[in-house]
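User: I'm curious whether this sequence folds into something compact or stays loose and floppy. Could you predict its structure so I can see for myself?
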Amino acid sequence: MPVLCLIANPIDSELSVALAARVHKETGGELNWLNHSIACEIIEPKSTDALAAARAIIAGHAVDAALVPTENRRKKVLVADMDSTMINQECIDELADAVGLKDKVADITARAMRGELDFGEALDTRVALLKGLEKSVIEEIRRERITLAAGGRALIQTMKAYGAYTSLVSGGFTFFADYFGKRIGFDEAIANVLEFDGTRLTGTVTKPIVDKQTKLMRLQALAAERNLTLAQTIAVGDGANDLPMLQAAGMGVALHAKPTVATQAEYRIDHADLTALLYLQGYTDEEIVR
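Assistant: Here's the prediction. I'll summarize afterward.
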C-alpha cells in the first residue's frame, strides 16, 4: 500500500492546507497531517502516477514529494554521511581555508562529490595540501566553523528512541566524525584517520580509506548483524560516494544532493531538513524527540 508524502522546510514552510488539498483532490486517498503545515501523507492515493501528479501541483513551491511503501516503513538501521549532510560544511574545505587553499581544495571536493574524480585519489591530493597544519588550528575550526544540519539531532534521537541503530560513516575524518557523532547522538562513527607528526599534519591518512564501498558494506553488515533485510534500513547522503549505500538501502535519501546523485537516488529531499526522513517513515510531530 503506497503513501504519498509532502514535506516542507519547518523554518519557512510553503505547504499550506490549500496546497495539500489540491494534491489530495488530484490523487485521491486519505489525507493525514503528520505535522500541520509542514508534513502530510496521503494514504493509498488512487491516481495511477500520484508522485508525478503531486510534483506537477507543487512545482514552484519549496515542497518535497515522495511515494513510500507502508511495509517496513519504519527503519531499524540508519547510515548517514557527515559532510554537507549531518553538518553544513565540507570539513576538508574549511581546513584548506586555514592554509589559503580553500578554492583549490573545494573545487576538487565538488568534482569528487559529483563523481568526476576517483574519491581515494582526490582525498590523498587534498590531504597532502594540508601538510604542516597545526592540531590546534584544526580544533579551532571544529569549534568555530562547523555547524550541525537542521533536524539532525531530532532524526537520530527519535530513531534511537524507537529502537533503531544509527551509524555515521564519513569519507571525512575521525577528528570531526567522532566529535559531532557524539554531539548528535549516533551509536557509532566511522571515518578516515588524519596522521600527525607530533602536533602537525603529515599530509596523509591511514589506509585503507573510508569510501563508497565502506559505506555500503557497513550498511549491509549492520543489517546482517541484526537479522534485518536491507528493506528495513535507511541511508542518507549527498555525494557520489554515497550512491551505492543509497541505492542498496530500503530507503535511500539524497538530501540537498548534487544533481547527478539526486536523479539516481529513489528518494530526494531538496527543500526540507533532516526531519523529512522521519516524516517519510510516518512519524508524527508528537513522536519526534527534540
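Summary: The CA atoms of residues 126 and 148 lie 23 Å apart. The radius of gyration is 20 Å.
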